[in-house]
Amino acid sequence: MDINNPLYKNQGIHAVLSLFTVEDGKFKVFLIKRKNQPYKDMWTLVGGACYNNETIDDALKREMFEKAGLKNINFKMFNVYSNPQRSPLCRMIAIAYVGVIDSNRVKYLKETNKTQDADWFLIDRVPLLAYDHQEILQDAIEFLKEKIFDTTILKDLFPPNFTLPQLHKAYESILNKQIDRRNFRKGLLQKNIIVDTGKFEEISGKKPSKLYRFKI
Amino acid sequence: MDINNPLYKNQGIHAVLSLFTVEDGKFKVFLIKRKNQPYKDMWTLVGGACYNNETIDDALKREMFEKAGLKNINFKMFNVYSNPQRSPLCRMIAIAYVGVIDSNRVKYLKETNKTQDADWFLIDRVPLLAYDHQEILQDAIEFLKEKIFDTTILKDLFPPNFTLPQLHKAYESILNKQIDRRNFRKGLLQKNIIVDTGKFEEISGKKPSKLYRFKI
DNA sequence: ACAAAAGTGTTGCATATACACCCATGG
DNA sequence: CCATGGGTGTATATGCAACACTTTTGT
């Protein structure tokens, strides 16, 4: 590769995260509102450009913190978007990630140098997004649905101790369909990824449910 | 993103293909031998750097042709490698792909501007590879094994008309384990992705086997 | 005792596995 | 008629889907 060939110049790498949560049984995605051009005043997924001395994972962590004050979030890569026209100022490829987090435990900033607002949006109330983030978000939802049963991608969605009815509602909300309670419980328990803590939740008006935790 | 920030400069995008075949029941990968620095005289996977006016898929097609004369090969992305030190001259991220092809039908060049040799290698006789291609190749093999049963990733491995014993041997060779002939056949046929052509192979010394083709 | 939600077990069906014999061909 | 490999079916086990009643708690 001829390092001075202009065809290799002026291209960058973007890390883009579709960060999801389930709040009150509602499936939501985290968006930020841009302060600057291009796409000033528009909502986007969290993310930003990768420096030449960091991995893309590290770039995403840094950008999450810079753009929204987010820390300690796990994520998983699922696709790459490389249409040369997908970003206006300069050719940018996007490396797309999915993350799932408990919205009650995560701290974020409504405003930073680069963002004027940030919030959780109901999946079916997502505004028009900048860049090709609409498409990326749709693919992220598909990816999450695919992985929800055979991976622990939801492990950060709840506090360390959570109940099965909570988890059950989260699955139904993400998959957007009903799941039989008994079969859900049976299937999950025999996967051997969660364990009974022996404790119970402390909520009144009904039978208290057992608290479980992820083994990992 | 400040387009003039030096931290965004001097980084490129590499497309890297692990191209596989099964020949005489042996699982093989296609490698090329570099003519130039860095890693002069070493073997690598096929691939090359992406121009700023093409998608990464297009870059891979172009590079396959330039470096090995390869044309019309299908492939699927499976991972991204972004350690800043993975390439010596300049920071290059690698977008990694897997492809599977019939080695008898594919034409390739032993020598081009950039390559001094090219060949199929038995998986357990792969030489030391340049860059981090050893790791990429291992991940590619894992990915192929995962996809072999629920996708048509092998559809280009054989001529349009192929026999089930052929396909059976290919699966055994790639997965490196024995598979019951009857169950293999039953399972594959009920997936409904191949159809009986009504024709038979013309080889002697045994009962001729039926020819099938992929539906897609 | 009632409302609200948690917890549990059984049966049928579909899918996957294990396994053995007969068939067509060329020599 | 024999050697080679191709083709088929059945019985069992395992995993998944459907489904209804009992338990605990607070009021």
Describe this structure in words.
The structure is a homodimer of 216-residue chains. Chain A is of the alpha+beta class and 216 residues long. Chain A has 2 domains: 6-147, Nucleoside Triphosphate Pyrophosphohydrolase; 159-214, Orthogonal Bundle (Arc Repressor Mutant, subunit A). Chain A is 24% helix and 30% strand. Chain A contains 4 helices and 9 strands; from the N terminus they run E-E-E-E-H-E-E-E-H-H-H-E-E. In chain A, the strands form 2 sheets. In chain A, strands 1, 2, 3, 4, 5, 6 and 7 form a 7-stranded mixed β-sheet that branches. The longest helix of chain A has 15 residues, at 133-147. Chain A starts with 10 loop residues before the first strand and ends with a strand. The mean pLDDT of chain A is 96. Chain B binds a DNA duplex (27 and 27 nucleotides) through residues 163-165, 180-183, 185-187, 190, 203-210.
Write the layout of secondary structure elements.
The structure is a homodimer.
Chain A: E1 11-23, E2 26-34, E3 43-44, E4 46-49, H1 56-68, E5 76-81, E6 91-100, E7 115-122, H2 133-147, H3 164-175, H4 181-191, E8 194-200, E9 210-214
Parallel strand pairs in A: 1-6
Antiparallel strand pairs in A: 1-2, 1-4, 2-3, 2-7, 5-6, 8-9
The structure holds a DNA duplex (27 and 27 nucleotides).
Task: Provide a concise account of the structure shown.
Two copies of one chain form a homodimer. Chain A has four helices and nine strands.
Q: What ranges of chain A have pLDDT less than 50 throughout 5 or more consecutive residues?
A: none
Oligomeric grouping of the chains: homodimer
- Amino- and carboxy-terminal Cα gap of chain A: 44 Å
What is the tally of beta strands of chain A?
A: 9
Mean pLDDT across the residues of chain A is: 96
Helix percentage of chain A: 10-25%
Tell me the Rg of chain A in angstroms: 19 Å
Assigned CATH architecture of the largest domain in chain A = Alpha-Beta Complex
The CATH topology label of the largest domain in chain A is: Nucleoside Triphosphate Pyrophosphohydrolase
Main sheet summary of chain A: 7 strands, mixed
The assigned structural class of chain A equals alpha+beta
Instruction: Count up the domains of chain A.
Output: 2
The first-level CATH class name of the largest domain in chain A: Alpha Beta
CATH homologous superfamily label of the largest domain in chain A: Nucleoside Triphosphate Pyrophosphohydrolase
Name the biggest interface. A-B, 30 and 30 residues
Strand content of chain A: 25-35%
- Helix count of chain A, per DSSP? 4
The H-and-E topology of chain A, N to C, reads as: EEEEHEEEHHHEE
Overall outline of chain A: elongated
